[in-house]
Design brief:
Elements lengths: L3 E9 L3 H12 L4 E5 L14 E2 L1 H9 L3 H7 L8 E5 L6 E5 L18 E2 L2 H15 L2 E5 L1 E8 L4 E7 L5 E11 L6 H5 L4 E15 L12 E7 L4 E7 L5 E8 L11 H9 L7 E15 L3 E2 L2 E3 L5 E2 L7 H21 L6 H28 L12 H17 L1 H4 L2 H5 L53 E5 L7 H10 L3 E5 L3 H7 L3 E4 L5 E5 L6 H8 L5
Parallel strand pairs: 1-2, 1-10, 2-7, 4-12, 10-17, 19-20
Antiparallel strand pairs: 3-6, 4-5, 8-9, 9-10, 11-14, 11-15, 12-13, 13-14, 15-18, 16-17, 19-21, 21-22
Bound molecules: flavin-adenine dinucleotide.
């Protein structure tokens, strides 16, 4: 290995967020380097993400991996229900119904429905796609140690984990996707603001012959309830024999040598006689935190290094994919010279509020789990117990709607007050976790509609800006010329379909490379350069 590597962009961390950034940069044709301290991808079986939301799947569609995920994901015919019970073989309490992948319909407002895929299968799919694209130099077994930045770039010291030899990587930009304990964030002295919610212990377990009370069958996950709250979540990972149990509470959950998870597993199954094998234990801290800053000069944070959230909602990984979708085109614009000098500041102003929003939603869901509900009679075998269980079931089905049906979190976030978005004065759509209202209002994701050639409008976006024109007779050549003079990539696309025109509401809609609306109007602005300078970040 040479003592110094030079690369335009260095990604630190080969988790799902680092790999997603590598996919987008590769899709843009940008060579870059990724370092990961582990010896490979998903070398340990991670009991983490399982749910990929609609927006993440739209990005995976762009990068060519959405179909592959259908093959490795959760069995398509397995229901997605959440069952509330006292144990798998205990009393049935209630059920939130969620369709299987086969039964679920792709909503009209997206070309991609949400997908279930356990992270230990997702990460290798992403890593293989990165390798196939061939533009990422992946260095496994390489640990980020420290960095210094100057006006032209960042000099990074890294360590070969096996030999402990250190070497240098010189890059223009460093993106820290190194997870919640991010060393890069710590070296930058950026505080992680928020709160600790609890201490959790997850175990991946294999149960070859799991039987349960018939009323409880068919769940993807089980929220197990005692006299006061949810004490355990039991989740089917592969729809067959691999399960994840998570128990939460005080700090003793982190001490895997002393905490007796075996007793919890038996209690959750509701039997001492069902054989199981513990595959892996993962102690973790449930928190709701946001980095005070997402960027510091040429160093940027993305994914869990920038924010943490309770998994109650399954938004951590998805939010990280949203981060890198926003960041990637800004990095390209900065490298190619058409992005403003401070464009990356817009990344922070756009993504930090989204991280805070999503984390807050997860905490609200978690609060419904752990509030003391005084479910005193939940184990009573008689009518008193039946009445209590019905009441508790109805309560959870209603209280956790935001957790199981969160399409508004996935698609409804918007970049309000972004310095690179030009507002048009129209009012925002409601921002609800469970509702998404398509809108082409500036700052929102440009809505999906099917084009006559079978593509989605979303498939038009990505390489440069796209000016959607809904009136042929409008001459846009002055804007095109202005873009050319600034080196801003811009393509005009004529849309004939009146239904799409009414969805987008204006005759001209300027869409950014990340598929978000930057500006819209019925005619060109008085000053085209002013518009372009705003959206490329030259006025920050
Ligand atoms: C129980 C549970 C369930 C979850 N379910 C969901 C879900 O359904 N949907 C969802 O969206 N999210 C879910 N999440 C959250 C999701 O797992 C995380 O948000 C996601 O893994 C974050 O990805 P990341 O790449 O940012 O960080 P990580 O996955 O933490 O990856 C960071 C990578 O950086 C590497 N690294 C760290 N330090 C260094 C260094 N110094 N040098 C080199 N490499 C380094 C690490 O080895 C690791 O590979 C869940 C989490 C938990 C705990």
């Amino acid at each position: 290995m040479t003592d110094q590597i030079t690369t335009p962009i260095l990604i630190v961390g080969g988790g799902p967020v680092g790999l997603s950034l590598a996919l987008d940069l590769g899709w843009r044709g940008i060579k870059h380097t990724l370092i990961e301290r582990d010896s490979g991808t998903a070398v340990v079986m991670l009991a983490k993400a399982n749910g990929l939301d609609e927006r993440t799947m739209e990005m995976y569609r762009r990068w060519g991996v959405s179909d592959r995920l259908k093959e490795v994901g959760f069995p398509a015919d397995h229901p997605g229900d959440t069952v509330y019970a006292t144990s798998l073989n205990g009393y049935y309490i209630g059920r939130s119904i969620l369709a299987s992948m086969n039964e679920s319909k792709t909503p009209a407002f997206t070309p991609q429905k949400a997908q279930r895929a356990p992270q230990y299968e997702l990460d290798p799919v992403l890593a293989n796609a990165v390798k196939t694209r061939g533009l990422t130099d992946i260095l496994y077994g390489t640990e980020f140690d420290r960095f210094e930045q100057d006006e032209d770039g960042v000099t990074v010291k890294v360590i070969d984990v096996k030999t402990q030899r250190s070497f240098t990587i010189r890059c223009k930009y460093l993106v820290a996707c190194d997870g919640a304990g991010s060393k890069a964030r710590q070296l930058l002295g950026i505080s992680f603001e928020g709160k600790q919610l609890d201490f959790s212990l997850s175990a991946m377990i294999r149960i070859p012959n799991l039987k349960m009370t018939p009323a409880n069958m068919g769940g993807e996950r089980y929220l197990l309830i005692n006299e006061s709250s949810v004490w355990c979540v039991f989740t089917s990972v592969d729809g067959r024999e691999i399960w994840r149990i998570t128990v939460h509470g005080s700090q003793d959950r982190l001490d895997v040598d002393r905490y007796d998870i075996t007793a919890d597993i038996k209690r959750a199954i509701g039997s001492d006689d069902v054989p199981f094998e513990i595959l892996r234990l993962i102690p973790w801290r449930r928190s709701q935190c946001s980095a005070a800053k997402y960027e510091a000069g040429r160093v940027v944070l993305a994914g869990d290094s920038a924010h943490t959230m309770s998994p109650t909602g399954g938004h951590g990984l998805n939010t990280g994919v949203g981060d890198v979708s926003d960041l990637s085109w800004m990095l390209q614009a900065s490298l190619d010279g058409w992005g403003g000098k401070n464009l990356l500041k817009a990344y922070e102003q756009e993504r930090r509020p989204v991280g805070i929003r999503n984390a807050a939603s997860c905490t609200r869901n978690y609060a419904a789990w752990v509030q003391d509900g005084k479910y005193t009679d939940v184990f009573d075998p008689g009518p008193k117990g039946d009445a209590c269980r019905k009441k508790v079931g109805d309560h959870f089905v209603n209280a956790l709607k935001d957790e199981w049906y969160s399409v508004g979190i996935a698609l409804g976030y918007r970049y309000e007050n972004s310095p690179v978005i030009v507002p048009d004065g129209s009012p925002p759509t409601p921002d609800s976790p469970i509702e998404y209202i398509p809108t082409a209002r500036p700052g929102h994701r440009a809505p999906h509609a099917w084009l006559s050639d079978g593509r989605s409008t979303i498939d038009l976006f990505g390489h440069g800006f796209v000016l959607l024109r809904f009136a042929h007779d409008l001459d846009v050549s002055t804007l095109e010329n202005a873009a050319r003079s600034l080196g801003v990539p811009l393509m005009t696309y004529d849309v004939e379909d009146p239904k799409i025109a009414s969805l987008y509401e204006r005759k001209l809609v300027l869409v950014r490379p990340d598929g978000f609306v930057a500006w819209r109007a019925d005619k060109l602005p008085a000053d085209n350069l002013e518009l372009l300078n705003t959206v490329r970040g030259a006025k920050i």
